[in-house]
Amino acid sequence: MSKPKKIKPIDGFSNVSDADVVSRAANVQTHMTGNANFPDPPVDLAALKTAIDTLSALIAQALDGSKTVIAEKNKQREAVIKMLRLIGRYVEVTCKDDMAIFLTSGFQPASNAKTTPNPLSEKIRKIDHGANSGQINVWLKTVPKASSYELRYSAANGTAATWTTMPTSAVKAPVVLNGLTPATTYVFQARALINDAYTDWSDSVSFICT
Q: 0.70 cut: is pTM over it?
């Protein structure tokens, strides 16, 4: 008799819009409140609702481009995401691998199929948080006949970009960026060196540092 497959919630938020974070969090908060299948969530659901409402308000306030408000909004976004991940782990353990029970939580199940994720741009394969606060890891995509690569990044602060460029010859290992500012959104681009000439920079990819 085969064992039931583990059910895991979708908890990837790196490339999800602020509005989607609010929508997903509100759906979980609504479904988890008073849910007899999950009587002891690790996060107070009233506190989660307050955090969601605060994030919604900051999203609206950040439309004027204020650096201070944007930083506060990004910090609040991470706080909401952290709450969702804690609840998601609890739901995963408590649902007894029963999909019907799992779905009452408001989370969406992650696919069990092993798929290769699409690259984020034509030259950036993946971006993820590093082991420490203020650290981001960036994996570049192999470009045929390239002898080396350059990665550049800048804080997305609404003003002209001030780029920091890092050369690299490897794409299997990530480019590790240290000393970044937590709760700040960064923009990344990459290019390849082919026959002593650089390609154009790739499309920009945004990622929030934690």
A: no
